[in-house]
Amino acid sequence: NGVEALKIDDTPKVTSKNLDVLKEFEQKEKKNEANFVVIGHVDAGKSTLMGRLLYDLKVVDQRTIDRYRKEAEKMGKSSFALAWVLDQGTEERTRGVTIDIAMNKFSTNKTNFTILDAPGHRDFIPNMIAGASQADFAVLVIDASTGSFESGLKGQTKEHALLVRSMGVSRIIIAVNKLDTVAWSQERFDEISQQVSAFLTSAGFLPKNVAFIPCSGLHGDNIVRKSTEPGLTSWYNGPTLVEELDNSEPITRALTRPLRITIGDIFRGGVQNPLSISGRIESGSLQTGDALLAQPAGEKCFIKALEVDSEPADWAVAGQNVTIHLSDIDPIHLKVGDVLCSPTSPIKIIKEFTAKVLAFEFLTPMQIDVHRGRLHTPGRIREIVSLLDKGSGAPTGKKRPRIVKPAQLARVIVELEAAVPLEAPARVVLRSNGATVAAGLLE
Ligand code: GDP
Q1: Is 170 exposed, middle or buried (0-12, 13-18, 19+ CB in 10 A)?
Q2: Taking CB atoms and a 6 Å cutoff, what residues make up the pocket around ligand 1?
Q3: CA dihedral sign of residues 87, 92, 96, 99
């Protein structure tokens, strides 16, 4: 009838090199990659300790520290110089608090680390949640000085530890910090370790995933350099903080699972390509020429070229940050938070899910926004299935309670207004009226 059948061009513009990506990876990459979040009470010494770590590992040079020290002395706060390593603007310095999640990278012989810094101020909990949602493990900093530990444990220490655990972080390293203020007392260290262990076990951490390091961030004892303080070496000969960080089990890169990349950014009209995206590969692997499926649009596209950590590359694997130059897709099909996946095992698009969440506010069947990384969608808690025991995760109390109180753990069913690409074990955050009301794991 004169109408020509529309031919869909299914051939990529760039032919694949047909690499065995997993084999390429085996041969090249030997280092583990790990992201961690730093938690603890305000003033526990988190910023100072991380500044010390970066300084002793020579990530920050002496000149920068000297400059900070001068500035700090002018303000009469000389001990703040190390803490400023993690801070960016002068506004934050004058206020003496770290604000946003500062991203900092450092490497040991075994591991490339990213610190997702999390300040302890109450209002900064949302930042910590953002950090926790990307963390492989947590470093909990505890102020060992007399009285501080006791008030800290009742306050943010417990709250933070519960939060990271409820978001699926299973390993925690405890820096028993400022031990210089108690003359390196073993008794004090043991007392703190026992109390914190008991609490962490009740919060669902397994003893084998918990380690304690006696240290001083300010003086640099047992951070990178092994302490030579006789008061400490007489009873402790274990790992330094950095050795313990390196002990973390290799993060199992989900290499053989189906490809998943959440789009973090979209660039249009680039010199190299009119349409490119960036994001972290959550699972699987890819190479130039591969076909991808964009969800929820359900549109197929191809990898024209790619970059790993801003360097041109032929392939990439789970855990790496990539920029992908795409072909054969209209930008209207892509938005930040969408998922690029393998067309043969695509991610499901769902309108309802069950999650195990820790409540920060009262929860009832109510309107909420579901956040998952940069994806967020309006929805509502349709049903509270049950309350859960924090240690075992088993249901407690009566079925279908009407309300969840702050600090309780619960299983809830969430209904979304629009279908989104989401699958277990995603870490989700529920917000209402601009406040975080719960956080946890999709089941
Ligand atoms: P943050 O709020 O947890 O980030 O704590 P900061 O790093 O800002 O430290 C709070 C205060 O504790 C500052 O005055 C630090 O100089 C002090 N401080 C931090 N670490 C140590 C330590 O190991 N020993 C002693 N004596 N003081 C410390």
Answers
A1: middle
A2: 40, 42-48, 79, 83, 120, 177-178, 180-181, 216-218
A3: negative
What gap in Å lies between CA 318 and CA 330, rounded to an integer? 26
CA-closest residue to ligand 1 atom 10: 43
Asked if this assembly's ipTM is beyond 0.95, the reply is yes
Going by CA atoms, what residue is nearest to atom 25 of ligand 1?
A: 178
DSSP letters, 121-182, are: -GGGHHHHHHHHTT-SEEEEEEE-STTHHHHHIIIIIHHHHHHHHHTT---EEEEEE-GGGG
What global pTM score does this model have?
Answer: 0.78
pLDDT at 146 > cutoff 90: no
Q: What is the pLDDT of residue 257?
A: 92
Q: Residue 385 and residue 443: Cα distance in Å, rounded?
A: 13
At residue 317, what is the residue type? V
Question: CA–CA separation, 290 vs 42, rounded Å?
Answer: 48
